[in-house]
């Protein structure tokens, strides 16, 4: 009988503390087939539901640039004043990366990947465990929005993520404590 109550208590804890991450991933290659630099815009969406009033978010971006046309020069950078990476919830920008960024390769047919930079600033490529603004509900759509200029005849491959994890409400934590106390009390009586 004690084991049945023990299992029921753990089931209650699981329901009270369940937290799943909503993750947008992007892996995309862009090729500029024109004879001049071109601006690209791309958005990857994920529809989510059941958001929490409080959540934490993380994200990252990296790129590999290739001189496809063999002229010895390839580059990509910001499209005007827009950051290259924007994390969005319900079409509201909640975080940006590569706010002022340019990257180049010198050498015919060469490829090179960007560095992973976690230091805050214009070239930061990673953010982790930051609070989602409370003014933005965590359900609806999550998105990664890219905007960049790519040199003529070259390609760039991006890998990017954006995830939002709900933070359990204080009531759920209290439920876990009560369930744990009930299990312990029943064990002592048995």
Can you walk through the features of this model?
- The chain is an alpha+beta fold.
- The chain folds into two domains: 1-19 and 169-190; 20-167.
- The protein has two helices and eleven strands.
- The chain has helices at 2-17, 170-189, and strands at residues 22-31, 38-48, 55-66, 73-78, 85-89, 92-97, 102-106, 111-113, 126-131, 140-150, 155-166.
- The strands form two sheets. Strands 2, 4, 5, 6, 7 and 10 form a six-stranded antiparallel beta sheet that branches.
- A hairpin with a 2-residue loop joins strand 5 and strand 6 (92-97).
- Helix 1 runs antiparallel to helix 2.
- It is elongated.
- The N and C termini lie close together (9 Å).
- The model is unreliable at 1-19 and 171-175 (pLDDT under 50).
Helix content: 10-25%
Number of domains: 2
Mean pLDDT across every amino acid position: 83
How far apart the termini lie comes to: 9 Å
- Taken from the alpha-carbon principal axes, the silhouette is elongated
Number of strands: 11
The value of Rg in angstroms is 23 Å
Main beta-sheet annotation: 6 strands, antiparallel
A few lines on this structure:
19% of the residues lie in helices and 46% in strands.
List the helices and strands and how they pair.
Elements: H1 2-17, E1 22-31, E2 38-48, E3 55-66, E4 73-78, E5 85-89, E6 92-97, E7 102-106, E8 111-113, E9 126-131, E10 140-150, E11 155-166, H2 170-189
Antiparallel strand pairs: 1-11, 2-10, 3-8, 3-9, 3-11, 4-7, 4-10, 5-6, 5-10
Helix pairs in contact: 1-2
